């Protein structure tokens, strides 16, 4: 599976990432000769001009995605699942990715392509499955209300409420302020203006220290999940 949040170790080399957890062995030791030769062959297949000992801090997002595809090829995978693979790449890079998908298909691999970009789905899919909740629910009591959240120069006058049993989604392009609003909501950044009411308690500020005590952090860098809001 190729995740939307790419799973790689940036401080390890390209060849180390390709073979992480499945090292070829010879005489009880890692067979680096096989690792290097296989990596060179895969890089040629992927038309990537990196050296096998390149640290993965250097390649672009697209190239790292290509490496994930090459890893699937090295496994001789018959089923490859791609989760939002074009979420952070340019239109030109999308074309390169689609060419590689066609090559995988020609090899006999089946590909499950997950995306909310319907133009891509209609372009490359042979079959389409639309997963959407078919049941109806009635929202319950209000459990969270945000009023006029503001961080000058970042976002302005954000208000919303959440009821028990409903899902509230935030949408927007990169840089639109979604992440920044969530950081304020969970106490990783201060509220400059506005207030938040949770379970009948109102707070007009939330500090990172308080959030840390509640064991909250962003999903990519520190990985904890809060038991409750830090308000």
List the total number of helices: 7
Query: What amount of the residues lies in strands?
Result: 15-25%
Strands side by side in the biggest sheet: 6-5-7-8
What is the mean pLDDT? 81
Helix/sheet category:
alpha+beta
What's the shape? Answer: elongated
Q: What letter string, H or E per element, gives the SSE order?
A: HEEHHEHEHEEHEEH
Low-confidence stretches: 211-220
How far apart, in Å, are the first and last alpha carbons? 37 Å
Rg over C-alpha atoms, rounded to the nearest angstrom: 23 Å
Please explain how this structure is put together.
The protein is an alpha+beta fold and 231 residues long. Helix content is 31%, strand content 18%. It is built from seven helices and eight strands, in the order H-E-E-H-H-E-H-E-H-E-E-H-E-E-H. The protein has helices at residues 14-19, 32-45, 61-74, 91-106, 118-124, 178-185, 208-213; strands at residues 25-26, 29-30, 79-83, 110-114, 142-151, 155-163, 193-198, 201-203. The strands form three sheets. It has a four-stranded antiparallel sheet, with helices on one face. Helix 2 (32-45) packs across helix 3 and helix 3 packs parallel to helix 4. Mean pLDDT is 81; it is low at 211-220.
């Amino acid at each position: 599976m190729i995740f939307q949040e790419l799973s790689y170790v940036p401080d390890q080399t390209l060849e180390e990432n390709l073979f992480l957890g499945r090292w070829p062995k010879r005489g009880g030791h890692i067979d680096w000769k096989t690792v290097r030769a296989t990596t060179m062959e895969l890089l040629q297949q992927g038309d990537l001009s990196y050296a096998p000992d390149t640290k993965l801090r250097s390649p672009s997002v697209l190239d790292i995605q290509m490496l994930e595809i090459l890893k699937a090829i090295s496994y001789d995978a018959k089923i490859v699942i791609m989760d939002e693979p074009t979420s952070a790449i340019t239109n030109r890079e999308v074309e390169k990715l689609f060419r590689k998908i066609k090559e995988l298909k020609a090899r006999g691999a089946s590909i499950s392509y997950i995306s909310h970009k319907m133009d891509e789905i209609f372009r490359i899919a042979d079959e389409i499955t639309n997963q959407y909740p078919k049941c109806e629910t009635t929202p319950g009591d209000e459990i969270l209300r945000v009023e006029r959240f503001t961080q000058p120069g970042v976002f302005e006058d954000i208000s919303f409420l959440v009821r028990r049993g409903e899902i509230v989604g935030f949408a927007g392009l990169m840089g639109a302020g979604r992440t920044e609003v969530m950081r304020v909501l969970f106490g990783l950044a201060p509220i400059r203006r506005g207030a938040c009411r949770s379970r009948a308690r109102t707070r007009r500020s939330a500090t990172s220290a308080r959030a840390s005590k509640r064991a909250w952090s962003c999903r990519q860098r520190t990985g904890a999940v809060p038991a409750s809001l830090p308000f």
